[in-house]
Every structure is written in structure tokens, then in C-alpha cells.
Specification:
Strand order of the largest sheet: 2-1-3
Number of domains: 1
Number of helices: 8
Largest sheet: 3 strands, mixed
Low-confidence stretches: 1-44
Length: 179
């Protein structure tokens, strides 16, 4: 079976006063609220700027994140409940690099601060088929939006299977790249 993928990421460049205002609103409204919560309550969903969350949702939906990181998303034509989005998958991607699995981004983002996510997003180069070069091309606003949207979903699911080096046979289904 031959599969070809074209992944594109819209790169909006609007920053400045709107982002500063959103950041100020977030700091003024969320930080005092979070400080008054118990540690268990703080791990639950924290409200963030609605426009930033909607932008993050839009990017996750249109940039192809769900195609790999949400089980069954592509096969269902995108008709997968949002509560399942970005929970990783056991469908492997196999090629000359070995076999990789889509990370559970909801767990991944909950292990990062915004600053550590921005640094990771600017420097990481994971194995194929992850289009890291598209992530590198995103604006800080885009990356922050994806971060806050993903965190707003809350942690869910379990970690994806571990990477398998070349020559090791995966236990489950895989998409095989030529090479």
C-alpha cells in the first residue's frame, strides 16, 4: 500500500498588542485563581484566553496534528470526538529510521512549561514522519496557541509505544515507507 502525505501549517504573523493584551489578561485572571487552588485542582483544566485556545484548536485541526496523533482520525475523515484528540496512537510509522509512534501530545504538553515547549518546538528534530520543519516555521503565537489548547484538553490516554530501531519487528500495524 502506498501512502503519500502533504502536511502544511498556516503561519499567521499577527503579534504585538493583541498578544500582549491576551498575556496580561491571562496573568491577571488566571495566576491569582491558580494560586488559590489546591495542587490537585491546579492540574485540572486552567482557563486561558479564549481566542488563543480557538487559534490552537484551529492549528491542531488544520496543520495535520490529529492525522497522526489522534487514533483513527484520518480514517474517519476527521470525525473523531475532540475528547480523543492528540492522545497518541499505536499505529507505527516504519522506514529506514526504524519504527516510530505518534506521541501522546496531551501527556507530553503536561510535562512542559510554555517556555520549555517553545524551546523544544524550535530545536527538536524527531524521527520521521514528524514534520518538525513545519513546527520550526510556526510563529511563537502559533506555538503558544497549540500549547495552551492541548493543555486545555487535559491529560488523557497512555504513552505511545517506544521507538523501535531498524531491524526490530513491530508488534502492531505500521505504515511502511520505502527505503
Amino acid at each position: 500500500m502506498k501512502m503519500t502525505f502533504l502536511l502544511q501549517c498556516p503561519a499567521t504573523r499577527k503579534t504585538g498588542a493583541a498578544l500582549a493584551a491576551a498575556t496580561m489578561l491571562f496573568t491577571v485572571s488566571v495566576v491569582p485563581w491558580a494560586a488559590a487552588q489546591s495542587p490537585q485542582q491546579q492540574t485540572q483544566r486552567i482557563p486561558a484566553d479564549r481566542a488563543l485556545l480557538e487559534h490552537g484548536r484551529y492549528l491542531v485541526k488544520t496543520a495535520g496534528c490529529n492525522d497522526c496523533h489522534t487514533p483513527g482520525y484520518a480514517a474517519a475523515g476527521g470525525k473523531v470526538a475532540e475528547k480523543l484528540w492528540l492522545t497518541g496512537d499505536t499505529l507505527g510509522w516504519s522506514g529506514p529510521w526504524g519504527t516510530t509512534y505518534p506521541t501522546n501530545l496531551r501527556l507530553f504538553m503536561h510535562s512542559h512549561t510554555e517556555a520549555s515547549w517553545l524551546k523544544t518546538a524550535r530545536t527538536f528534530q524527531p524521527r520521521p514522519p514528524m514534520p518538525w520543519f513545519n513546527v520550526h516555521a510556526m510563529t511563537d503565537r502559533d506555538l503558544r496557541a497549540i500549547y495552551h489548547y492541548t493543555r486545555s484538553l487535559g491529560p488523557a490516554g497512555k504513552a505511545a509505544p517506544d521507538y523501535l530501531p531498524p531491524g526490530q519487528k513491530p508488534a502492531g500495524p505500521v505504515v511502511t515507507f520505502p527505503g
